[in-house]
Specification:
CATH superfamily of the largest domain: Vaccinia Virus protein VP39
Largest sheet: 8 strands, mixed
CATH architecture of the largest domain: 3-Layer(aba) Sandwich
Strand content: 15-25%
Bound molecules: S-adenosylmethionine
Number of domains: 2
Radius of gyration: 19 Å
CATH class of the largest domain: Alpha Beta
Number of strands: 10
């Protein structure tokens, strides 16, 4: 199923002559941000695009993804293994995400509980917990890949039911998760169920920079490249993007309103060099 979805989206994206050059520039910028010299980044990006275009004759998508990732093992960046440099740079990303959500949860007093739905390796959850004295953060994800040193509890769930009681949490975060799920409403309904009325939730989402297939396909390729080429992961990348203007309606439908604060919707722009896609922040309140 995952491979089928991605093959279809890759086909649409890679066969569009307006998309590939833009994605190529973005891949090169990511590889340069990792530390590769521009000429090496350009030739690596072309090689990756070429392998993805010819994935069927090269053994299929998953084989090609593994082969590309394995090839990074032979590359050094300023004398250090590229994989080690990548790992360090990716873990720094959690600080950016934490800074974007933390100011909106500062009202939570010691003893309050926060859920991080789709917490990934838990680095963001951990930083948020450290930034909110006495608050307990709990993570849930469909995949379990906790990073070393992360202290918060993380539970694996089926993407449908967390198993938490109704109205357990005083607040929540869901950062860069929803576009990874084909049934966003189902995930949001579960979040609404476990948040207390009046509880605040901060959502970070990737949104195409403008309407239309080109922006959507470029966003998909960057998301795909980050999650499945630069990480040896099996994260689903179904490209389930919404335009910024369409998110609030989805939130409303499942029981969240935009929080009554001035900056409840923020265009964060391209805020991360390692994932040069457009991000938005929505601050929500669980309807009572
Ligand atoms: C790009 S990662 C983001 C991780 C983390 N929130 C962060 O910002 O660093 C997306 C995560 O969403 C998770 N995910 C996908 N579908 C999900 C679902 N239905 N419920 C919860 N998490 C899900 C994936 O397993 C992955 O860990």
């Amino acid at each position: 199923m995952k491979t089928k979805v991605m093959n279809g989206l890759l086909q649409t994206a890679l066969s569009n002559p307006a998309v590939v050059p833009i994605a190529d520039v973005k891949f090169v910028s990511i590889l340069c941000a990792i530390g590769l010299p521009k000429s090496q980044a350009q030739s690596l990006s072309s090689d990756i695009i070429n392998q993805l275009v010819n994935r069927e004759t090269n053994g299929g998508l998953v084989v090609v993804e593994k082969r590309i990732f394995a090839s990074f093992g032979k590359i050094t960046v300023s004398g250090k293994p590229m994989l080690e440099v990548m790992r360090r740079k990716f873990s720094d990303r959690a600080y950016i995400v934490c800074e974007q959500v933390l100011p909106y949860l500062k009202h939570l007093m010691p003893g309050k509980k926060v859920v991080d739905l789709g917490c990934g390796d838990g680095r963001v959850s951990d930083l948020v917990q450290m930034g909110l004295p006495g608050v307990i953060v709990t993570g849930y994800d469909t995949e379990l890949y906790k990073a070393p040193g992360v202290a918060v509890d993380i539970y694996q769930y089926d993407g449908i039911q967390t198993g938490a009681f109704d109205r357990t949490y005083d607040g929540g975060i869901i950062t860069n998760v929803l576009h990874h799920t084909l049934d966003k409403k189902m995930v949001l309904r579960e979040l609404a169920r476990i948040i207390k009325p009046g509880g605040r939730v901060v959502v970070l989402e990737t949104v195409p920079s403008e309407p239309g297939q080109v922006a959507r396909s470029v966003t998909f390729l960057v998301d795909y490249f980050y999650n499945r080429i630069l990480h040896d992961s099996d994260v689903n990348v179904p490209g389930a993007f919404e335009l910024a203007k369409d998110w609030p309606l989805l939130f409303e439908e499942v029981g969240f309103d935009l929080a009554p604060i001035r900056d409840n919707v923020t265009d964060l722009g391209i805020d991360q060099v390692l994932v040069p896609e457009n991000h938005y922040r929505f601050v929500l309140e669980r309807r009572g």
